[in-house]
């Protein structure tokens, strides 16, 4: 597509002063806007020189009005208030002021449609007070209300049409009068132009300033319609931006399939990823992740969608999707931030992004994997400042805590932490190291990657590409005179054997495994090839854990458990037949979910003589578990029931993550 012939605006123009206008970041509409009718006071301007949107500078009054949040320009300078022929110096145009209840009616419409819960509204309102952003903007920014639901509610409240993706023009409209810069900043697409009127689609129909500017520039009535912000952005890119490289992108993808990326293709990807809209898009994705307390961000390309999902308290929640046309640009932007090879789209890559978001120093672990429709990106957010390496804060208490501390007090031997990915193993390891980190001990860790930097501990990152593996690093650090060694994961037999040998020579070794429970940790090492007599001589204990969502203390509600459910708690000593539990409700402090944060449920297996004999006899994991329970081990399920009884979580959460005994 040929480059659109748009006018270039000077610096001191309305476009400059309007600035970027995301959905809802503007003022209430006038009454004429709320009725959905075209504006009628534009005809007086038709014989005045057009502003050319925006080739002519305007006075300072419009800027002051825009920045102060006033509905009208102020003062008597040479701003927009002086361009009307029927206005006198110092007199603002006679335009009816907007109804103060417009946004409230918008919120009510969303609630009536079931698109905005009281908890979501309370959370957004609280953040609005802190940031001074409009409530409607905050709801969309947090992902609590989708942009489609917000646009539909606005169309209903203001009685104006909501248009679809097929309703936009095929060629630019009024391109001689309207600059691309203004259209992008104000999120406006001209739809049609007649001698008397200009039809436009706007992302925020409550923005009266944009309508005024268009009215003044064209001298025409403005016929207003509502469009989705992502659709408007995609249309602007299609109609105006150059180059429009559908064919070039297809060719680049074909070359990627063949592994023959040219320098021009790489530069094109860099250019796409460096455009301001793409940068804002990625920054907004990360900002929403922090605001939502997400632990992971998933960016997944599909045939007709670029899906964004957040993992919040262990549960994936879908957010608003960027336009599918931005897939290559968004993913390339993330890869550039993580210092990955943007030309390589056939192989998985890993990287890191140090980022400061909302005053927090974050470390983002980035993983990319090629899929049918592009690269899937997952970013894990590690909050360096807010993390607390404290067993109480993690939820360790009672018998599991007592048994775990007993293991950590041993002068040598192996302590294993097991569980699936995302079960909090690394945090538990760091908490254990923080407890053991004293001046009279030397601690060395081997990690892939180093997640948190702990003062006083020597931390070694694994770099397999240059031969620095877990096993290779372990062989080196045993000559560094350590007291305690932490291995991020026992991935193979070589690493496991070196860890066992280190424990036999008087070191404390802490590591992780991927197993479902503590007894399975023993059988997993046996299956890897570690000799049984070495395991029985070196393992002090194995901790298995899961994370359950913590009930919000502000809104949880108690209830009397039915007899069938109460029977699950019969093993707890001192408990009568009556069992009172708690359920999730939802409030502003927990974003309407009923949960806030997570806590650990765990089980700790302590090595004993009976267990040693069972392991040497090649007992199964089930037999090992039975012996451990007979010797006093409280299972994860039992620990979870106790925490549900205490009102810290729900029975549903325990059943979701723990195997029923």
Automatic annotation (TrEMBL):
<dbReference type="GO" id="GO:0016887">
    <property type="term" value="F:ATP hydrolysis activity"/>
</dbReference>
<keyword id="KW-0547">Nucleotide-binding</keyword>
<feature type="region of interest" description="Disordered">
    <location>
        <begin position="1"/>
        <end position="105"/>
    </location>
</feature>
<dbReference type="GO" id="GO:0005886">
    <property type="term" value="C:plasma membrane"/>
</dbReference>
<feature type="compositionally biased region" description="Basic and acidic residues">
    <location>
        <begin position="25"/>
        <end position="34"/>
    </location>
</feature>
<dbReference type="GO" id="GO:0015628">
    <property type="term" value="P:protein secretion by the type II secretion system"/>
</dbReference>
<dbReference type="GO" id="GO:0005524">
    <property type="term" value="F:ATP binding"/>
</dbReference>
<feature type="compositionally biased region" description="Polar residues">
    <location>
        <begin position="95"/>
        <end position="104"/>
    </location>
</feature>
<dbReference type="Pfam" id="PF05157">
    <property type="entry name" value="MshEN"/>
</dbReference>
<dbReference type="InterPro" id="IPR007831">
    <property type="entry name" value="T2SS_GspE_N"/>
</dbReference>
<comment type="function">
    <text>ATPase component of the type II secretion system required for the energy-dependent secretion of extracellular factors such as proteases and toxins from the periplasm. Acts as a molecular motor to provide the energy that is required for assembly of the pseudopilus and the extrusion of substrates generated in the cytoplasm.</text>
</comment>
<dbReference type="InterPro" id="IPR037257">
    <property type="entry name" value="T2SS_E_N_sf"/>
</dbReference>
<dbReference type="InterPro" id="IPR013369">
    <property type="entry name" value="T2SS_GspE"/>
</dbReference>
<dbReference type="GO" id="GO:0015627">
    <property type="term" value="C:type II protein secretion system complex"/>
</dbReference>
<dbReference type="InterPro" id="IPR003593">
    <property type="entry name" value="AAA+_ATPase"/>
</dbReference>
<keyword id="KW-0067">ATP-binding</keyword>
<dbReference type="InterPro" id="IPR027417">
    <property type="entry name" value="P-loop_NTPase"/>
</dbReference>
<comment type="similarity">
    <text>Belongs to the GSP E family.</text>
</comment>
<feature type="compositionally biased region" description="Basic and acidic residues">
    <location>
        <begin position="41"/>
        <end position="50"/>
    </location>
</feature>
<keyword id="KW-1278">Translocase</keyword>
<feature type="domain" description="Bacterial type II secretion system protein E">
    <location>
        <begin position="478"/>
        <end position="492"/>
    </location>
</feature>
<keyword id="KW-0653">Protein transport</keyword>
<protein>
    <recommendedName>
        <fullName>Type II secretion system protein E</fullName>
    </recommendedName>
</protein>
<dbReference type="InterPro" id="IPR001482">
    <property type="entry name" value="T2SS/T4SS_dom"/>
</dbReference>
<dbReference type="Pfam" id="PF00437">
    <property type="entry name" value="T2SSE"/>
</dbReference>
<keyword id="KW-0813">Transport</keyword>
<dbReference type="GO" id="GO:0008564">
    <property type="term" value="F:protein-exporting ATPase activity"/>
</dbReference>
């Amino acid at each position: 597509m040929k480059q659109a012939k748009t006018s270039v605006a000077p610096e001191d123009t309305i476009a400059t002063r309007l600035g970027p206008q995301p959905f809802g970041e503007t003022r209430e509409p006038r009454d004429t806007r709320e009725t959905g009718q075209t504006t009628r006071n534009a005809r007086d301007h038709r014989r005045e020189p057009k502003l050319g949107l925006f080739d002519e500078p305007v006075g300072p009054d419009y800027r002051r009005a825009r920045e102060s949040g006033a509905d009208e320009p102020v003062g008597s300078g040479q701003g927009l208030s002086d361009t009307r022929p029927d206005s006198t110096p110092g007199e603002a145009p006679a335009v009816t002021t907007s109804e103060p209840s417009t946004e409230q009616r918008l919120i009510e419409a969303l609630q009536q449609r079931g698109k905005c819960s009281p908890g979501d509204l309370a959370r957004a309102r609280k953040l609005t007070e802190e940031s001074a952003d409009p409530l409607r903007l905050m709801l969309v920014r947090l992902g609590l209300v989708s942009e489609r639901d917000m646009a539909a509610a606005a169309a209903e409240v203001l009685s104006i049409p909501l248009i679809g993706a097929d309703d936009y023009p095929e060629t630019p409209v009024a391109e001689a009068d309207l600059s691309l810069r203004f259209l992008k900043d104000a999120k406006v697409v001209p739809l049609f132009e007649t001698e008397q009127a200009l039809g436009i689609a706007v992302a925020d129909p409550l923005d009266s300033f944009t309508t005024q500017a268009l009215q003044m520039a064209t001298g025409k009535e403005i016929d207003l319609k509502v469009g989705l912000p992502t659709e408007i952005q995609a249309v602007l890119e299609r109609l105006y931006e150059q180059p429009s490289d559908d064919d070039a992108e297809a060719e680049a993808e074909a070359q990627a399939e063949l592994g023959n990326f040219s320098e021009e293709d790489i530069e094109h990807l860099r250019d796409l990823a460096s455009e301001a809209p793409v940068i804002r898009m990625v920054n907004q994705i990360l900002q929403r992740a922090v605001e939502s307390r997400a632990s992971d961000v998933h960016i997944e390309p599909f045939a007709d969608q670029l899906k964004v999902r957040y993992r919040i308290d262990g549960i994936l929640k879908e957010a608003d999707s960027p336009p599918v046309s931005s897939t290559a640009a968004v993913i390339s932007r993330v890869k550039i931030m993580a210092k990955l090879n943007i030309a390589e789209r056939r192989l998985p890559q890993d990287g890191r992004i140090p980022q400061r978001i909302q005053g927090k120093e974050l470390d983002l672990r980035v993983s990319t994997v090629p899929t049918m429709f592009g690269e899937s990106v997952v970013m894990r957010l590690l909050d360096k400042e807010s993390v607390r390496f404290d067993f109480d804060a993690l939820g360790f208490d009672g018998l599991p805590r007592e048994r775990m501390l007993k293991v950590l007090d041993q002068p040598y031997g192996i302590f294993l932490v097991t569980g699936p990915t995302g079960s909090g193993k690394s945090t538990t390891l760091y908490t254990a190291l923080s407890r053991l980190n004293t001046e009279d001990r030397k601690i060395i860790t081997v990690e892939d990657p180093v997640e948190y930097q702990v003062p006083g501990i020597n931390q070694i990152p694994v770099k397999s590409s240059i031969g620095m593996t877990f096993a290779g690093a372990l062989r080196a650090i045993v000559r560094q005179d350590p007291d305690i060694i932490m291995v991020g994961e026992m991935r193979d037999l070589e690493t496991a054997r070196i860890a066992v040998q280190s424990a036999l020579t008087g070191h404390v070794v802490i590591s992780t495994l991927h197993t479902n429970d503590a007894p399975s940790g023993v059988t997993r090492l046996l299956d890897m090839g570690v000799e049984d007599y070495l395991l029985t001589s070196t393992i002090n204990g194995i901790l298995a854990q899961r994370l359950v969502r913590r009930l919000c203390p502000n809104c949880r509600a108690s209830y009397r458990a039915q007899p069938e459910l109460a029977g699950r708690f019969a093993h707890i000593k001192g408990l009568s037949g009556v069992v009172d539990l708690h359920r999730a409700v939802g409030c502003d402090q927990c974003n309407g979910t009923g949960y806030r944060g997570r806590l650990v449920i765990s089980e700790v297996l302590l090595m004993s003589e009976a267990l040693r004999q069972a392991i040497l006899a090649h007992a199964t994991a089930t037999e090992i578990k039975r012996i451990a329970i007979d010797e006093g081990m409280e299972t994860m399920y039992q620990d979870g029931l106790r925490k549900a009884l205490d009102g810290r979580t729900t029975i549903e959460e325990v059943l979701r993550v723990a195997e029923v005994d």
